[in-house]
Amino acid sequence: MSATIVAHSSSWSRALVAISPYTFSAIGIAVSIGVSVLGAAWGIYITGSSLIGAAIKAPRITSKNLISVIFCEAVAIYGVIVAIILQTKLESVPTANIYQPESLRAGYAIFASGLIVGFANLVCGLCVGIIGSSCALSDAQNSSLFVKILVIEIFGSALGLFGVIVGIIMSAQATWPTKV
């Protein structure tokens, strides 16, 4: 029955079913960690450059505004944590069962989870970096604004946690066929 369905489907669906679910899993894990680190690096770049520039006018802001850099770094840690969780979801499946629907679903679930976490953390890193930049610049002008903008930065950082939660929920679908 499934051979009939595959024979009549498009070339894209045949290609996706022919790729090993382990390949999709590996790509998902790599995207989770790689894109999260990219988001953290981008946020640190944005925050750091503004922090250095604003510190010329007000050197007092340097140490307390490093918290913005730490928030950006947390985004990379989120990606590492999820990559470790996704790695633990991988199980060995006999070659005869590798292309069963359950195996394909597990591979796609890990892939989708890694994609969601990676791109959520990319956006989170940018968000935290831009807010951290604003925090440094405004703190250099008026030190009473630091705590107010830091609260906004904490809300921006929560976006990465939402991605982690959604990724963990999605990875719960990764159940491989039992060994026979």
TrEMBL record:
Pfam family, one: ATP-synt_C
Bilayer disposition of the protein: Multi-pass membrane protein
One Gene Ontology cellular component annotation held by this UniProt entry: proton-transporting V-type ATPase, V0 domain
Cell compartments where the protein resides: Membrane
GO MF assignments: proton-transporting ATPase activity, rotational mechanism
Domain of life of the source: Eukaryota
InterPro entries: ATPase_proteolipid_c-like_dom, ATPase_proteolipid_csu, F/V-ATP_Csub_sf
Cross-referenced Gene3D superfamilies: lithium bound rotor ring of v- atpase
Record domain V-ATPase proteolipid subunit C-like: where: 27-86, 111-170
Membrane spanning residue stretches: 22-45, 66-86, 106-133, 145-170
Keywords, ordered alphabetically: Hydrogen ion transport, Ion transport, Membrane, Transmembrane, Transmembrane helix, Transport
Signal peptide: none
Keyword tRNA-binding: no
Main location: membrane
UniProt family annotation: Belongs to the V-ATPase proteolipid subunit family.
Assembly behavior: V-ATPase is a heteromultimeric enzyme composed of a peripheral catalytic V1 complex attached to an integral membrane V0 proton pore complex.
Name of the protein: V-ATPase proteolipid subunit C-like domain-containing protein
Organism per entry: Phaseolus vulgaris
Organism ancestry: Eukaryota, Viridiplantae, Streptophyta, Embryophyta, Tracheophyta
